[in-house]
Target: Phosphogluconate dehydratase
Amino acid sequence: MTTLHPTIARVTDRIIERSRDSRSRYLELMRIEGEKHADRNVALPCSNLAHGFAAMGEDKESIATQRGPNIGIVSAYNDTISSHQPFGAYPPQMKIWAREVGATAQVAGCTPAMCDGVTQGTDGMELSLFSRDVIALSTAVSLSHAMYDSVAMLGMCDKIVPGLLIGALRFGYLPTVFFSAGAMPTGISNKEKQRIRQLYAEGKATRAELLASESGSYHSPGVCTFYGTANSNLMMLEMMGLQLPGAAFINPGTPLRQALTRASVHRLAEITRHGNDYRPLAQCVDERSIVNAAVGLLATGGSTNHAIHVPAFARAAGVIIDWDDLSELSGAVPMLAKVYPNGASDVNHFQNAGGLGFVVRELLSAGLLHRDIMTVFGDDLGAFAQEPWLDGEELAWRDPGPSGDADILRPATDPFFPEGGMRLLQGNLGRGIIKTSAVDPERWTVEAPCLVFERQEDVAKAFAAGELDRDVVVVMRFQGPRANGMPELHKLTPILGVVQDRGYRVALVTDGRLSGASGKVPGAIHVSPEALGGGPLARLRDGDIVRLSAEDGTLSTTANLASREPAQMREIELGTGRELFGMFRNFADEAERGGSAMLAVGGL
Model:
């Protein structure tokens, strides 16, 4: 058995000690809730039960007599998100596959699901982060019917998986398996997409040309093929053992995808309290599995959005993890994958090169993952060091073998970089995260006068006027959770990329978000404390010298901030439903604690 790396062991022990009281309270609550809901015929009066299975047709008798386990389906299906469109066909199929093993399945409820790709740069993006809280609440409402012995979670993208997981963890006595619909096939290259975006930002490409490029990239059902938040979600689910091995990226509509979905349904029937292999979610998600999620994130250059999501869903399980933990782990975890925006290739290329089975195997062999965790499949995480395939018509797993492309995937003994893809920055401007995996190390340090903005549109105007054609640190403030819901600042990426390509030293500092889609420009993001309420960014002025350095972990200014009054944020704008989310903004935590209002006031 491989010895656990000392840094992994030290950070895990620190998290366990820090979480001792909160984790104990959580597990005790799950014990009490599990016993309370162990038998729905005891927990629910007859009238309640009758309501619950009234529309279930041929499955009514089975549910009424508890002939077999009843699987609750929580779906984030909609037609607007390409990755979630395939989920529309899942429940009817899942009911058939459940009957194959003497079980039943019924849709417990549906959650909203929004796409940052659709809302980026628009007012709707200000609802994005808090949609995670809404999804968690919707999941809790779905499972509150107490009709279920296990749960199928249908969701993949952005805030959706963290929201589903937070909600499901409050019903952690139920075994839970996550279902992926897979990645869309490869379209135009990500490098070409980026080129057209920058040409459009410079006025050298038309809207028709830009739309044709974007449509060539986002072109069919399935998750987007760049390695952003959605695909990082799927990776972390496997690192935590919460979906079947290798289920993350297999394309929609393929025989292998269908076989994985069918096997996931069968597995949910096997791991309930009433069988011999009970695997409740509360036991699967613990300090070790959360560290595994963080290690996978760092080893693959995953989305920095998870610097917010990991603390949030960990907290829902009574586990406390912070950015010091993530940064220390990053110092020990080598970079094994280069997937766009960290490289030229997409997740289909990554899958073909060996995929997550290769990554898990290499990290386990280097002692960088906890093998001894409870998963939904297999004796331990070793079952996930494999790739799925069809042996005739039978689903099987095998060793992924050596890397199929050393430009995409490398072993732990020969990584792309000896450290992970994320670092903590801190100083008199606060604490923030930088994604180093996509940035040339020569650009890890930028020290320059700053220009301060509060709207992405104003950055675009300054760019058009030539005001950014110099060494500059662009500061985007009043973008935190309490200010405007912490939108992603995608509009800035092409603009700042152009400035950098013109030969200038440029960086971004913001209390907003810039996710796994962020690329080559260095940025201190999620800066805490946020500007609203008097955070340091509120005291910066145009021309102040700002230093951002991933080399020494610095985020600072030479200006005397203490002598200044903080700037006041413009009045929050109404429309697009933003006024309905006022309570979320008012009660939200700082980004390092998860940026959640629900967790802040919910006694967690």
The first strand starts at residue 70 and ends at 75.
